[in-house]
Amino acid sequence: MTGTTARRTVASIAVSAALACSTACTGAGGPAGSGEPTGPTRPAASSASAPPSSRPPALTGPAARALRAVERATGRAGSARVESTTVVGRELSLAAEGALGWDDGLTGTLTITYTGGTTAETMRRLGTTAMEARYRPDAYYARMGDEFAQRLDGRHWIKYGYEDLEDLDGGAGAGFADRMRNTTPHQTVKLLLSAGDVREVGEETTRGRRTTHWSGTVGGATGQTVDIWVDDRDLLVKKVERGRTKTGELTQTAYYSDYGVTVSAERPPAADTADFKELLASQGR
Q1: Contacts of 78 (CB under 8 A, 6+ apart)
Q2: pTM: predicted TM-score of the whole model, two decimal places
Q3: How do 157-161 and 248-257 pair as beta strands?
Q4: Residue 150 burial (10 A CB sphere; 0-12, 13-18, 19+)
Q5: Under 8 Å between Cβ of 46 and 26
């Protein structure tokens, strides 16, 4: 493999890892005020980012009071254990597990496993079937496998600065920074509060706990939906987001538990870390 080909391969892998780490956290919904739907998979735009004239009326009444209580309780909890699965058409499916905190920006660690899709096949051929992702307020770090490290002077980690990802080719990274700051459970509730058709579906048992199921459409004509299941402490137990993308349907299901858990996300050693921005610059991108 020539030096140019090797650099392109490394950059391609790095981009794939960036998309996986981002998708594992952000699901289908863009943050409020982010404008056009963000990220490489281009989820359907949420009504939270629609022009004022097209937004649904603010939610009022018992449903609004109930969901605002959930938003407050979940926000105050500060952290939780997370298990999630994400499917993006035929492009990617993955599972993630770990703990995330949101007291001072997004922090935490997830183990992300590729379970299917064309991106997963590419990563498997290069010896990477799973990675560790560490999320910090200004960047996240992905630990690749030993085979990838051999292509990168022995370094295992890639640093992705959120602001650097904004300039990803074709605008695919537009809004990354805001997305990563708005991926916590209480932000999901805030997104649901922007829906004009929120309804209480009923009581259900979710992972052995009695929960209330709420549902709403946040993408208007595009059909992006958010469903949450809330326990008697006003804490999210489960969420499901669905939306349409250029590469197919996107669905993310997440379960939350152990609220208030201690979260760790140490910065990896600098000598074992490559910067994503420098990787792209090395091949002229």
Answers
A1: 101, 102, 103, 259, 260
A2: 0.83
A3: unpaired
A4: exposed
A5: no
Q: What is the mean pLDDT of residues 150-171?
A: 79
Neighbours of 152 (CB within 10 A): 20
Burial class (CB in 10 A: 0-12, 13-18, 19+), 202: exposed
How far does Cα 110 stand from its chain's mean position?
A: 11
Residue 51 has pLDDT above 70, yes or no: no
- pLDDT band at 34; cut points 50, 70, 90: very low
Count of all residues that appear for the chain in the document: 285
Report the pLDDT averaged over residues 173-193. Answer: 78
Most confident residue range from 39-53, 112-126, 175-189: 112-126
CA 128, distance to chain mean position in Å, is 20
Cα 189 to Cα 37: distance, rounded to the nearest angstrom? 18
pLDDT digits (tens, 9 = 90+) for 101-157: 998 888 999 999 989 988 888 778 777 788 999 999 888 899 988 888 888 889 999
Beta-strand relationship, 139-143 and 130-135: antiparallel
How far is residue 253's CA from residue 243's CA, in Å, rounded to a whole number? 12
How many CB atoms are located within 10 Å of the residue 279 CB?
20
Nearest Cα to Cα of residue 110 among 77, 132, 79: 132
